[in-house]
Design brief:
Length: 242
Amino acid sequence: MARRPTWRPARLAEVRRETGTARTLRLEVPGWPGHVAGQHLDLRVTAEDGYTAQRSYSLAAPADGDSVELTVEQVPDGEVSPYLTEVMEVGDEVEVRGPVGGWFVWRAEGTAPVLLVAGGSGIVPLMSMIRARRRAASRVPFRLIYSLRDFGGRYYAEELRRPDPGLDVTYVYTRTPPEGWRRPAARIMLDDLAEGGWPAGFEPECYVCGPTGFVEAAADLLLALGHAPQRIRTERFGPTGG
């Protein structure tokens, strides 16, 4: 049996603001064993009175020595996310344990086309896959369909705007699209996946991540388009207390 990962101290080395309620944290974790794009870790914070709380967060970037990146969205009335997004400063420490997960991953030796379907902050592990592809100079073609409420909620906006040969990005807005946007505001639909994704006959590897309702709806649409169930990998999240 595999040994359960141990808790390791992690120091905040860098912060980048993604949106008004989310930021990316680069942590230095001495002895980090490395990870595969799509995995996550457990993070634990300890208050001055000794109270501890832990949450799971997707890794936002591929393995880079002892450095890991997380992008955290603040959860209203949450215990952990408000500290990570508003209070924690460079030099502060938490504990992390991982990596965790082995199914929802992409490895650079893959050869099948890839379809990434993100709902809101579900973009995080998918961005790790995009970055891993770029770092490996892989020629596997990627298509990303990114569903979010409004233009201001986009994570990694500047990075996804840059030319990236082999990566096509489609945005779906569910509440307030940018001015002049041709597609009206609506939840992700069959046409979005048919036009922005790959034909089922190409046998792409499909990764869907987001809130539970979004993931179930997107997976059902992919099945309706003829994609094989074994090629649809899902990762969902729901209320955890933040």
